[in-house]
Amino acid sequence: MREALSLVVNGERRSLEVEARTLLVHALRDSLGLTGTHVGCDTSQCGACTVLLDGAAVKSCTLLALQAEGAEVTTIEGFAPDGELHPIQRAFVEHHGLQCGFCTPGMILTAADLLARDPDPSDETIRHALRGNLCRCTGYQPIVEAIRAAAEAPA
Amino acid sequence: MIPAALRYVRAGSVEEALAALVEPDAKALAGGQSLVSVMKLRLARPALVVDISRLELAGIETADGELRVGALTTWADLAGSAELRRPALAAISECAAGIGDLQVRNRGTIGGSLAHADPASDMPAVLLALGASVALKSAAAERMVETREFFLGPFTTALAPGELLTGVVVPLPAAGSGSAYASVEHPASGFALAGAAALVSPDGSSSVAVTGIGSTPFLLEAEPGEALAAAEVFGDRFAPAGYRRHLAEVVVERALASAGARTKEDA
Question: Which of A65, A80, B158, B256 fits as disulfide partner to A86, beta carbons 3.0 to 4.6 Å?
Fold first, then answer.
């Protein structure tokens, strides 16, 4: 049986039908075509599927899509205005905060949650915040540097 | 991995949730950070999921000598709470800040975690040491159960069919008390190989509870060294029983030292 779901994704009201058991990440990728949200481990460990749900970073593989009814979801596609890079994205480019890029959307959206709460985090705070985001290219050092630089960048 | 087919209902009130939970194969869903994971692994296959996350059961307040924490209060709420900066209650925020990761703390709730009752989850140790109780509500009645009576075995609690855990009540410790949580985590899962919470009273007496080493978190009823030596400790390929017992001794010592130091800061 399919259920109606209505939510705001990247600023746009979207209405769709999902099975009750559909996970948010699959609704975003398969129903809405927003494949910037990645499925890595599928067991809530790696953070590649991180999106912002009403501004808070969450793992979209560990949420039923129906739990997001009425919420505002931001994926990497909607993180910056068209044609521009968000300061966090720019910092990742400038500081080589990515190699293969698979973990990057999750890293950036987790960093967005962190910087919204703590605009001037220590390296230790940044590392603690990235606990739920794995990078298999082992690029943590430049990722931390990129987030540090984004925090220091003029808004 | 996706959960087995299920029906879903979003509860608009506690009464609605309790009415839906009467169905034998129904499960309450809060933040979903434990339940959705085990549903994906098909370890849990509820026929009906009752989403309680919109109910007004979140919040932290102090009144009448008690700290009351709503079941839907998230780890992030607890970690950031000004109410919990008091050294006597610091174990709660300290423990919450170390649970899972940032994303899990944004969604995971104290009530959901207690009802899930993973034998290695952190917060039960803190609530045991602080002498907390949980509020359980059914369509017919409401009852308070002390946390020491609540955890019956791995993933097994005193929650009866049709009951919903609505909150946690912690008796406020005397002025001049201190509390702390310390753990050694499994580096991959983040769950405690051994965790300990301590509440130290102004007269120097203490209450200590441990998690991760047995079939449930438990209070140490005797002097810690003696109680741990006598405890039935669980072992696996990550941490054999002897190593886990040793870790428990270490984290108990750390929690007691840190809680003891905090007694001087509590007013």
Answer: A80
Query: In this structure, what token pair is assigned to residue A131?
Result: 């606990």
Structure tokens at B141: 């009645």
- B160 and B201 together in one domain: no
A23/B36 touch (CB, cutoff 8 Å), yes or no: yes
What DSSP state is assigned to residue B152?
E
- Considering the domain architecture, whether residues B234 and B149 belong to the same structural domain is answered as no
Beta strands in A63-127 (DSSP E): 72-74
Q: Tens digits of per-residue pLDDT, B102-134?
A: 999 999 999 999 999 999 999 999 999 999 999
* B95 lies in some domain: yes
CATH of the domain at B36: 3.30.43.10
Task: With a cut of 70, say whether residue B27 has pLDDT above it.
Answer: yes
Mean pLDDT of chain B: 96
How many residues does this entry show for chain A? 155
Contact assignment for B8 to A44 by CB distance below 8 Å:
no
Which residue type occupies B185?
E
Q: Could you tell me if residue B231 is inside a domain?
A: yes
- Counting residues of chain B whose pLDDT is more than 90, the rounded percentage is 97
Q: Kindly give the interhelix angle for A140-152 and A104-117, rounded to the nearest 10 degrees.
A: 40
Q: Tell whether pTM > 0.90.
A: yes
**Count of structural domains within chain B:** 3
Q: Could you tell me if residue B67 is inside a domain?
A: yes
Q: Residue B10: helix, strand or coil by DSSP?
A: strand
d(CA B180, CA B218): 16
> What is the span of the domain harbouring residue B221?
178-265
The minimum CA-CA distance between B238 and chain A, rounded to whole Å, is 18
The DSSP letter of residue A119 is: S
Nearest residue to B193 via CA among B224, B231, B140, B238: B238
Tokens of B22: 């009467």
Residue A53: its chain B contacts at CB < 8 A? 106
The CATH number assigned to the domain holding B103 equals 3.30.465.10
Please tell me whether residues B81 and B148 are part of one structural domain.
yes
The whole-number pLDDT of residue B131 equals 98
ipTM of the prediction greater than 0.85, yes or no: yes
Task: Name the closest residue on chain A to residue B41, using Cα atoms.
Answer: A43
Nearest chain B residue to A70, by CA: B54
CB contacts < 8 A, A to B, total 89
**Residue B227 shares a structural domain with residue B137:** no
